Amino acid sequence: MLFNTLNTRETALFLSHYIHSLVQIPISIQTTKNIYKLLSTLSNSITKPMYLCALLLLERSICRNYSWAQENVTLCFCIALVTSQKILKDHAFRNAAWSKIISLPASTISQLEREFLSILDYQLFVDPLEFSGFQRRISLLANIFVGKFKPVLLPPLKTNLRPLVQELTPVTPKRRISFDCTLPAIRVRHY
Questions:
Q1: Were 12 and a residue from 36, 51, 129, 173 both cysteine, which residue would form a disulfide, CB within 3.0 to 4.6 Å?
Q2: Shortest CA distance to 141 belongs to which of 39, 14, 56?
Q3: Tens-of-pLDDT digits for all 191 residues of the chain?
């Protein structure tokens, strides 16, 4: 499953909430049902990195063209999943197989995939640091969603800053700290 702490139903609900929050529209029960059906159907075929890559690409596409995903959120997630599977898997499903899963003609899936790629300007590379940061963020959101972690609330700011400024006294360091350092040379491989 996508998250260790969530079962398929909870994962579908979390993904539905997350995707709806990206496009800022109210969550629909039908979207959650569709995502649950998709997760159940693809449970053995799609890996966690494929789901995460799909969410990352979907987030990028929504940032570039906000109105694209508002019409049918589930379909946009499916197209992002189609694309991420083709990126990450050597023997990915063909659009004919996806048409049976999504219940759309293969030509429509191909057209939506081209539109999705065009919105992304064919920029599909995901930096490993970006991916790991995105993975941590999604994992944290899923844990907050399930109630494992509670978001940290910051204490209110002091309204009167004058006493705060008077409390601060300058500190003189006993020794000078130097931040000068040389970084080791990084070898770049060109393939």
A1: 36
A2: 14
A3: 456 656 888 888 888 888 888 888 887 888 888 888 888 888 888 888 888 999 999 999 988 887 877 778 888 899 999 999 998 888 888 888 888 888 889 999 999 999 999 999 999 998 889 998 988 888 888 877 777 655 555 565 555 545 444 444 444 444 444 344 444 444 545 54
Determine if the pTM surpasses 0.85.
no
| Residue linked to tokens 């029960």 | 29
Rounded-to-10 torsion of CA 108, 60, 39, 51: 120
Report yes or no: 58 and 77 within 8 Å, Cβ to Cβ. Answer: yes
Nearest CA to 18 out of 48, 47, 51 is that of 51
Cα distance between residue 185 and residue 69, in whole Å: 44
Using alpha carbons only, give the angle 121, 140, 84 rounded to the nearest 5 degrees.
30
What the block records as the tokens of 158 is: 């002091």
Q: What is the dihedral of CA 110, 115, 120, 122, to 10 degrees?
A: 50
Unique residue bearing structure tokens 């990028």: 60
Report yes or no: 38 and 16 within 8 Å, Cβ to Cβ. no
